[in-house]
Amino acid sequence: MSQQPPCSILSAAIILPAIKSVKQQKALNYYGSVQSSITIEASKFLASVTDIVETEAVSTIESFLLATQNDCVGDADQKNACWLTIRATAPSDAFEVPRWHQDGRMFPCDEGREDITRSKYALTMLGPTTLMLHPDTQIFRTFHEGEFKHYWWLQTSNNHEPTEEEEDQAIEALRYWLYEELEEAPQLQVKDGEVVRFSWGRKESPIHSEPDLISDRVFMTVLYGSETELRGMCEWRNAMYGEFDWE
Ligand SMILES: [Fe+2]
């Protein structure tokens, strides 16, 4: 089976709702079957946390779900469930220094589908887009070199387990080290309304970070799987399948 590349921009852009500001910092999470109530609930959420009215959000959510579910590999049963999340945030300095990372495995894959490239789709509706580096050998080399350097407990010569504090310190030190090392690394340029597809849980999954939150931001991601896979994800994350959770 031919695999989707680790990172791509979908060919058709989505028309964005005219959101100008975030009224409330909140996130919506939904793990469950792909159904029409997602559009209704997501639009309600956007109307509650931003300055737009519900009806203005509907077509964006609908087009995003349709385009991404169509693009996702697999037959109908293999992608009839999803995890959708929408985040509305106010400006902050939390990501002034990027948090370069790869997304790990999101759920236990169904038997026989473990080797298929699985992806997440992202659309920024307001504010800065996710920072994403081109998946290139040199960048991965730097990334792994940084991990090896800072996560000393991964080195075979070491048999001392890090304390929680030591682990936090190493994560922070690696974050700054990568910030400097990858400062000039070429980034994917994403235009308004473009949907980015990026793989998770694989060696070549793109290295990315939240952008510097210099202005209000509204951001939506979705991934698909079978009902069993998404129920497995709920178990891993202690989430409720089929519920719309506002936090
Ligand atoms: Fe991520």
Could you explain how this protein is built, in words?
The strands form two sheets. The protein has a seven-stranded antiparallel beta sheet with strand order 1-6-4-8-3-2-9. Strands 5-7 form a two-stranded antiparallel ribbon. The chain contains five helices and nine strands; from the N terminus they run E-E-H-H-E-E-E-H-H-E-E-E-H-E. Helix 1 (37-49) packs across helix 2 and helix 3 runs antiparallel to helix 4 (164-181). It has helices at residues 37-49, 54-71, 137-150, 164-181, 227-237, and strands at 7-9, 26-33, 81-89, 119-126, 131-132, 196-199, 208-209, 217-225, 244-246. With 247 residues, it is α+β, with helices and mostly antiparallel strands. The protein has two domains: 7-132 and 186-246, no CATH class; 137-185. The longest helix has 18 residues, at 54-71. 30% of the residues lie in helices and 19% in strands. Fe (ii) ion binds next to loops. The site of fe (ii) ion has 3 residues, from loops. This is HNH nuclease domain-containing protein.
Give a nutshell description of this structure.
This is HNH nuclease domain-containing protein. This protein has 247 residues and is an alpha+beta fold. It has helices at residues 37-49, 54-71, 137-150, 164-181, 227-237, and strands spanning 7-9, 26-33, 81-89, 119-126, 131-132, 196-199, 208-209, 217-225, 244-246.
The number of helices is 5
Main sheet makeup: 7 strands, antiparallel
As a percent range, the share of strand residues is 15-25%
Helix content: 25-40%
Oligomer: single chain
Strand order, biggest sheet? Answer: 1-6-4-8-3-2-9
Number of strand elements? 9
State mean pLDDT (0 to 100 scale).
Answer: 95
Low-confidence parts: none
Number of domains: 2
Cα distance spanning the termini: 39 Å
Which descriptor suits the 3D outline? globular
- H/E order of the elements? EEHHEEEHHEEEHE
Structural class: alpha+beta
Give the cofactors and ligands. Answer: fe (ii) ion
- Spatial extent as radius of gyration: 19 Å
